[in-house]
Amino acid sequence: MLLETDFDVSTADLRPVAWSLEQQHRLQQFLFAEARLLDERRLTDWLNLWTDDGMYWVPQAQQQDNPYDHISLAWEDRMLREIRVRRLSDARNWSQQPATHTTRMVGNISAAGLDGADNLVAHSVFQMSEWRNIRDMPLHQVAGRITHKLASHGDTWRIRLKRVDLVNCDAVHGMLQAFF
Questions:
Q1: Given 59, 80, 167, 171, which residue has the most CB atoms within 10 angstroms?
Q2: Strands 50-59 and 72-76
Q3: pLDDT score, position 3
Q4: pLDDT at 139 (0 to 100)
Q5: What is 21-91+99-166's CATH number, 3.10.450.50, 3.30.390.30, 3.40.50.1970, 3.40.910.10?
Q6: Which of 95, 73, 100 is nearest to 168 (CA)?
């Protein structure tokens, strides 16, 4: 999956979607719940929000079209997300002693439309405060835009793609351990 170039990350050519206030509320609650799982370090529960072929992408450049022609800060399939979760949860991981603490704010949530595979494309913005026990910079602020491709799953969704466009994506970053 990582080296295959046929995973559709495009959000162009979306079909409009008729969207009620109730559906907007459900979408907001889904994205708020995802953020809460990450903040509470309930990472196994967070992994369960994904489709089996879902991809987590953090581009390294503004307006990056795809993860195939340019390096990315993260391009992770299910296996890599699971490995990172195990590493973050391992008591022998000294960089996580004490564990990272995060708080996220998610807002400006909107449904953009449906892609060719009937995934709902949703946009939001976020700000995350991350505390790690680092002497020179214990509190780290991160902000950006998130695009989700959500596959219908009963009366909710599963994440098929999560693209996180950091405001400072082209800066020099230290260790990026927490998921955004």
A1: 59
A2: antiparallel
A3: 66
A4: 82
A5: 3.10.450.50
A6: 73
